[in-house]
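Exercise 7.
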Amino acid sequence: MKGWEDTTVRELRSFVGLRLLMGLHGKRRCQRDLWSTDPLMCSSVFPKTMSRDRFDILSSALHFANNEGEHSAEDWLWKLRPVIDVLDSTYRSVFVPRKNVTVDESLWAFKGRHQALQYNPSKRARRGLKVYKLCSSDGPEAGYTAAFNIYIGQDRGEFPASMKAVDDLMKKAKLLDKGYQLYTDNWYSSPTLFHYLQARKTTAVGTVRVNRKGMPSGLQASRGHIDFRSSKTGMLCLQWLDKRPVTMLSTAHTSKVVTLPPNRRGVERSKPEVVVSYNNGMKGVDLSDQLAQSYPATKKTVKWYKKVFFYLLDMTTINALAVHRALGGKMPQWKFRTELVRELLQRGGRPASFRRNPPQNQPEEDPQQAHMPVDTPFRRWRRCALCWRNHRRRKETRVMCSHCSVSLCPAPCFQAYHT
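Solution. The predicted structure, written as tokens, is:
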């Protein structure tokens, strides 16, 4: 910290852009290789934007709340509370989901220390912070996170924990009493929750455990048949025997059975309509997590608030992609992230003292030695100039000449071209 100089908003834009760009470079690539002087390993964007030492010092000094300020002792997320509050209000104001929404949980992997860490062997990460998410589940904006809550173990209230999680998210997103249809899994679903949502003008669909309070007894579905019960308020409890019994709860469906289009083998199958609707409606949270894990900006750190911040950055990027598609955009995620990084770096910057000065009295380079293989911008695939010129097997490459800026295969085209 001896050489610390105050940062600016423009420089922080460049810092965030470089973190997003690291996700595009792949998970297994070492961070320091991005500033390497080895032409086969380096990426010219990183040293041109910011020195490696400056990037490291910004990463180590990254804070979101004043440690010496006042904060609630019961709030275990106070170090990240300003960011969470801003995102909560932004997610609500930028976009309003359509009719179908999903509530489910995600596990953000973290191996450090925090009071709210959870262990869940059914999740791939197994150990981390549990996050409740409410996402849009249909249309081009599927995967948009309208509200989220990071679980910190304080779920005591008038409702059970599973019911309180759903109620808090629906209230935070302001979706109650507006005719929405909610999809949940068997940890959240219960007759008590569905009656409560029905009273708030919200229909619900989900799998349910047969030992929930208020569930009807005596459901016995046989192979190829269904068994169901219905209440006076219009809530359906249906059991369908597939490979194993599947019990559904819904306030929006009947016991109707529909015939699906033929599968790859040309076999037509029949399923209850509520099961088909549930399979289509539960994809919101899973899609959001899948897109975020494709190009993650998170890196290893022992500070939980830094790790969670970059998880939130990935979630915000996916929300921006969902809004882009809802407005008619067609860019895939890779292209969208690339353009986002380009925009951040163009609007970013750094003070002049952080720029690397060229060495004095540098000897002139030998023209034969100036031709070195380097990565194409953003490691994009390009046509090999020599392969296409000679009408041979047309290949694409991610290597170009540092002097000529001509895209060439590393071998044998690079040497043959300059010979």
